[in-house]
């Protein structure tokens, strides 16, 4: 055990700075015998505070050991020695809520381990000490390490704490001292005596040295006193210098204060000079000629407008001159108040002229004759207003509220013009749409009086081209009108000028020229433009909505054309600040909603199956409708940018068709079996999807094929049933008997399963009877399926395979149960194949 203890200490505990207190060998843990040697050890940490742990150690290959479990001593709740009256190797340790039963190799080893554990608990966890049950009383003189002698003067912990091994250098020095004294290590007393004598000798020499240096010490003290006196004299000189420096500092501070006041005075004089120069320059900006031009202005004359613009620029320079607010109270400035009065009068006349000019130009434009499917261009009106642009710019800086009033008057006047133009234009367009609708209904009525479906699938190609032309006409007319109006408004009212000036100012101050208050310049510009263009074209969105509704009313499928064309236009590169692009985007979103509603309605039509009387269903009308709808949409969405939206609806339409098939299969008015309705329609659906070859519907095509095959199998099972009913019942009883434990070779010896009984049953099914039954079955299949269906042969082949499987199972049972003299059916598998073939050829 000592060798094992040493090996464990070296491998596991020494690297962790721990030492083993006690160790025991375990043979069982929880009643299970250990295959490899297992040990229970208690170890203490070498550093304070001392930590005590219990380890379960398992021996591995090649004398290696591994710690399997680790417990803290404070977590031990109970230790049970099992029975103190009877010697036993078993004991129990309860760790927290877990109880472990262990078996030591010997009783003595167990008692030693438990007593050492009890002592360690009393010493290191007296408050959290576990309960010791069926354990001998603790003996105070017991030691932890049974390898130490019992008569030692101190305990194990004290010995370990006091003892400290000497180093190799200390040992070498000690041996040198012994060699100088000509002593051996056994003559320690003599060595100690020699050391004492040397110590006394050295002490005497030290005393003699101290007594001999008394004169030198006195001289040193005299020198120290002289140094202190000189240091006091130097301190007095430093105090004098410090007082002189304080006086000098005060003088310098006074000089600096006077100099700063002189600098402030010079700066104030310079600022005053500059203010006066700016003031005088501003006063001289507006001349008497400028005042006379503003007072006698004829805004209708282009030459007078140019002179007014020059006078406005001069007044703008005066108004924006760098004049401080207090200087406005000066007499020279007050005498120039006539300038402001003249400007105010000119503003009133200018606003009155603008109002009249806006009204006259709008009336002139609305009276022009144009093609009934076009909107009059506004170039003439823009050209007439353009000379006033510079005055508008001046007005924006001089009187912002009047400038905003000018914008409002323009918007109120011009939106009435556009409202009349849009009303006339869209009325003509909608008349064309209605004319196409009447023509389409007449053509449809001539082709088929019984057809009332107005889906896009029945729209003629010529009508589609006409609708596309109308949509292109509307977009082609509206786009230039809105874009030209926006450019004119931005240029005429100088919407971008102030933004660029503000942005330039902010960029000089912060270094960021791309944003204003957290918003980009483009975004702020777009908001201002929309603030003007929105009220100006408030009638555009309702008219576009009315046009789209008329298109959809003429033919519900036209919503697909609208969606394709508008999506193509919306995704085309355009100016993000364009108001028409924003309006067009809103229109596209509205059409997308109508597109979704139309597809949802189409899906509902495919789902609804109405059967008013008992009939044999066959192929549902929803399948041809689905096929035609897919073909038409594929033509329209060929190369379209928003094809993804259509493909999402394809899956929804497929599910709607499947729901319609399911509803029709369980309809009480259907004469056809449920499985027949399903596999016939799923077969038709599979053929449609195979013909269309749409990649996004490949999964649905495979699902339709699977549904068809599963329903064919279900129909075959239900229709075929068990043609050899009595034979089936006989062998079913045989299988049940074998399942209850009857041996296969004993089946023929049972009275109810004898060969005689089997032959009686077989004799009831001759080949003629079987063929007759199969003929009736074929007629039944033909009756259930639609006339001329290609699936008849498919179903008949499946029935053939199912019937042959039944016969083969009967033959296999006869072979295994009747080995000596196996009865045979009155027909063979080859006969059955011939029956099926003949019946198929006859029909």
UniProtKB/TrEMBL annotation:
Keywords annotated in UniProt: Coiled coil, Exocytosis, Transport
SUPFAM superfamilies hit by this protein: PH domain-like
Presence of the UniProt keyword Transmembrane in the record: no
GO cellular component, one term: plasma membrane
CDD domains: PH-EXOC1
Gene Ontology biological process: exocytosis; Golgi to plasma membrane transport
Occurrences of domain Exocyst complex component Sec3 PIP2-binding N-terminal (ranges): 33-124
Keyword Transport tagged: yes
InterPro entries: Sec3-PIP2_bind, Sec3_C, Sec3_CC
Gene Ontology MF term list: phosphatidylinositol-4,5-bisphosphate binding
PANTHER family: EXOCYST COMPLEX COMPONENT 1 ISOFORM X1, SEC3/SYNTAXIN-RELATED
Family statement: Belongs to the SEC3 family.
UniProt-recorded name of the protein: Exocyst complex component Sec3 PIP2-binding N-terminal domain-containing protein
Organism: Mesorhabditis belari
């Amino acid at each position: 055990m000592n060798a094992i203890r040493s090996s464990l200490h070296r491998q596991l505990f020494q690297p962790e700075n721990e030492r083993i207190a006690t160790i025991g060998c375990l043979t069982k843990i929880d009643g299970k015998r250990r295959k490899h040697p297992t040990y229970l050890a208690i170890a203490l940490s070498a550093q304070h505070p001392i930590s005590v742990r219990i380890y379960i150690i398992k021996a591995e290959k090649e004398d290696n050991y591994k710690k399997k479990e680790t417990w803290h001593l404070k977590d031990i709740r109970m230790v049970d020695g099992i029975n103190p009256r009877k010697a036993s190797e078993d004991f129990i340790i309860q760790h927290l809520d877990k109880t472990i039963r262990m078996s030591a190799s010997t009783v003595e080893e167990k008692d030693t381990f438990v007593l050492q554990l009890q002592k360690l608990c009393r010493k290191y966890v007296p408050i959290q000490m576990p309960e010791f049950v069926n354990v001998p009383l603790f003996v105070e003189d017991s030691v932890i390490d049974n390898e130490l002698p019992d008569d030692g003067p101190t305990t194990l912990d004290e010995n370990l704490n006091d003892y400290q091994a000497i180093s190799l250098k200390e040992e070498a020095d000690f041996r040198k001292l012994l060699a100088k004294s000509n002593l051996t290590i056994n003559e320690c007393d003599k060595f100690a005596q020699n050391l004492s004598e040397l110590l006394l000798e050295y002490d005497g020499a030290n005393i003699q040295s101290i007594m001999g240096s008394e004169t030198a010490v006195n001289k040193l003290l005299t020198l120290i006193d002289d140094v202190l006196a000189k240091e006091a004299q130097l301190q007095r000189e430093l105090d004098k210098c410090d007082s002189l420096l304080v006086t000098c500092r005060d003088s310098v501070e006074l000089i600096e204060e006077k100099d700063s006041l002189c600098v402030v005075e010079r700066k104030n004089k310079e600022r005053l000079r500059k203010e006066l120069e700016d003031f005088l320059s501003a006063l001289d900006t507006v001349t008497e000629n400028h005042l006379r031009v503003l007072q006698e202005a004829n805004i209708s004359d282009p030459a007078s407008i140019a002179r007014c613009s020059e006078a406005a620029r001069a007044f703008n320079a005066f108004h924006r001159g760098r004049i401080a607010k207090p200087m406005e109270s000066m007499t020279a400035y007050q005498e120039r108040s006539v300038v402001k009065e003249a400007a105010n009068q000119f503003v009133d006349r200018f606003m009155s002229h603008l109002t009249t000019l806006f009204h006259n130009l709008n009336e002139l434009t609305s009276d022009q004759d144009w093609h009934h499917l076009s909107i009059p261009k506004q170039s003439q009106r823009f050209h007439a207003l353009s000379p006033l642009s510079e005055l508008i710019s001046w007005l924006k800086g001089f009187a912002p509220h009047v400038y905003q009033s000018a914008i409002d008057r323009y918007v109120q006047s011009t939106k009435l013009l556009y409202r009349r133009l849009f009303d006339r234009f869209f009325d003509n367009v909608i008349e064309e749409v209605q004319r196409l609708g009447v023509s389409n209904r007449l053509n449809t009525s001539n082709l088929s009086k019984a057809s009332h479906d107005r889906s896009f699938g029945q729209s003629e190609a010529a009508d589609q081209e006409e609708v596309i032309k109308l949509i292109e006409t509307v977009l082609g007319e509206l786009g230039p009108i809105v874009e030209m109006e926006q450019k004119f408004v931005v240029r005429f009212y100088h919407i971008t000028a102030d933004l660029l000036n503000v942005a330039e100012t902010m960029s000089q101050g912060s270094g960021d020229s791309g944003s204003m208050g957290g918003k980009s310049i483009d975004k702020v510009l777009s908001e201002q433009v929309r603030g003007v263009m929105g009220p100006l074209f408030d009638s555009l969105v309702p008219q576009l909505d009315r046009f789209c509704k008329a298109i959809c009313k003429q033919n519900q499928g036209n919503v697909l054309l609208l969606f394709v064309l508008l999506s193509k236009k919306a995704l085309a590169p355009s100016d993000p600040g364009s108001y028409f692009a924003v309006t067009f985007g809103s229109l596209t979103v509205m059409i997308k909603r109508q597109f979704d509603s139309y597809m949802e309605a189409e899906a509902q039509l495919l789902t609804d199956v109405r059967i008013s009387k008992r009939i044999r269903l066959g192929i549902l009308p929803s399948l041809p409708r689905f096929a035609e709808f897919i073909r038409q949409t594929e033509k329209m969405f060929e190369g379209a940018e928003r094809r993804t939206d259509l493909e999402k609806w394809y899956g929804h339409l497929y599910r709607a068709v499947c729901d319609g098939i399911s509803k029709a299969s369980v309809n009480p008015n259907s004469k056809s079996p449920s499985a027949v309705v399903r596999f016939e329609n799923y077969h038709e659906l599979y053929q449609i999807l195979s013909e269309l070859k749409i990649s996004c519907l490949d999964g649905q095509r495979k699902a339709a094929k699977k549904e068809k095959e599963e329903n064919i199998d279900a129909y075959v099972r239900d229709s075929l049933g068990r043609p050899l009913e009595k034979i089936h019942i006989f062998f079913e009883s045989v299988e049940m008997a074998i399942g209850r434990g009857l041996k296969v070779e004993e089946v023929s010896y049972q009275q109810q399963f004898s060969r005689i009984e089997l032959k009686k049953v077989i004799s009831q099914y001759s080949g003629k009877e079987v063929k007759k039954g199969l003929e009736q079955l074929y007629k039944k299949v033909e009756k259930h399926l639609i006339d001329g269906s290609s699936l008849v042969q498919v179903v008949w082949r499946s029935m053939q395979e199912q019937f042959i499987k039944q016969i083969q199972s009967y033959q296999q049972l006869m072979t295994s149960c009747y080995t000596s003299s196996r009865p045979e059916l009155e027909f063979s598998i080859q006969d059955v194949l011939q029956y099926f073939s003949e019946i198929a050829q006859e029909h």
